[in-house]
What does this fold into?
Amino acid sequence: MTTTELQRKQQADLHKKLWDMANDLRGQMEAYEFKNYILGLIFYRYLSEKTETRVSKLLEEDGIIYAKAWKDEEYRNALSDELIQQIGYVIEPEYLFSNMIAEIGKGDQGKFDIEMLQRAINAVTESTLGAASQDDFQHLFDDMDLASSKLGRDVKSRSKLIAKIMININDIPFLHEDIEIDVLGDAYEYLIGQFAATAGKKAGEFYTPQQVSKILAKIVTIGKKDLRSVYDPTCGSASLVLRVGKEVNVRKFFGQEKTSTTYNLARMNMLLHDVSYQNFDIQNGDTLEEPKHLDERFEAVVANPPYSAKWSSDAKFLNDERFSAYGRLAPASKADFAFVQHMIHQLDDNGTMAVVLPHGVLFRGAAEGVIRKYLIGDKNYLDAVIGLPANIFFGTSIPTCILVFKKCRKDDDNILFIDASNEFERGKNQNRLRDEDVEKIVDTYMSRQTIEKYSYAATLKEVKTNDFNLNIPRYVDTFEEEEEIDIDLVQDRIKEIDNEIFEIDNELNKYLNELEVVKYDEK
It folds into this structure.
């Protein structure tokens, strides 16, 4: 078995254990509701084990264990300073995940209860106060409500349930010597994806399927090995920007997320993927109404915004530098183009932007038609339109598309259209893009070749002739001619069938007569 095959097997085993654990814990809550607890505790274990690893290195030459060193004021101050500088937080020996597991193992004799865990979490946050990492750790565990009655009616029952979750998490071998640490981050994303699959409509708000993320990431990194920055204005769990980081070296990740629960998830996900708190800037807030990174320009911009979301479309935005040049605002009932305009504003001159949107943005008129015309006719920013299969996102079955924008286009005399809507693997609940489907999309985007019933590079003149309507069937003809019907052959076959029926009726009547049964039509 090759190293890659071994990694995949171990990863699959890990994923199964994680999901089985979630299902085992169903009781007063659905597995989706357990998300905040399971993922929060996985994250706490990660922080704890990272602390132990760093402390072991720091104390390697001193020949002293962490618990003993912590009791010495000089050691304690030196360790705290080093940990804050290196990893951004401190977990005291008493509150290490491994120590709490040991206390759980002692049963009634142990010191563990849910209040101990709450103190441990509070101590992590407090350790960052006044440090550069403070903003990245503030309110990080707010969604893990350890006082919730859903966990139990009293401290004892809540402690028992949380202890069970912690033991299950402790039994999972997160780290293997022959596997990169990123496996933990991947497992974390797997759980997010599985929760999304069972959560219904709301799930899509925090998770973009990996295959779609892969397309966006590959497109915005073509020809690059290093990116100064990548930005997602509706970052959800941050899976999209992290996917970009798998394609090339990313020096700094930026994002904004409106929902506070998902914002916390994004920051956890960053840290779980071993991205230092110094190398990401994820903010909480409404990107359209309260943008947090307006002065920044990004080399890569990716997004999967909420489809046709409502926004204020307030007249004040006509004076906002993100929207003023277009002369019109996206309608209040559909913010799709407002997100596009915001992203274009944040895109650097040498950057690439890829965004997932509903098909309506391709052809809807009124203000959206005006914005589309400005982006193509006046600025010539649109580089490609890629139609995706229906039902590949959690919580919605509508077909979607990817729009690719560049401010300085190499192929500035055409727009590439790709119809990838018919190439996918059909699933029970969700359809899925296969690796070969992703590869074909990216390869076609790079080559810009015309492939029958799949892709076409339309000239700007053609697009203008179509009044800037980008509906893919106008450019990629996927019509399949129906096979010509031979009427004579059909008539002959009908006669054959009539004769066969006549013979069967005669045979049936023969048997009925033998049984002395009177035929129905002779009654």
Summary: The longest helix spans residues 487-514. Residues 176-181 have pLDDT under 50 and may be disordered.
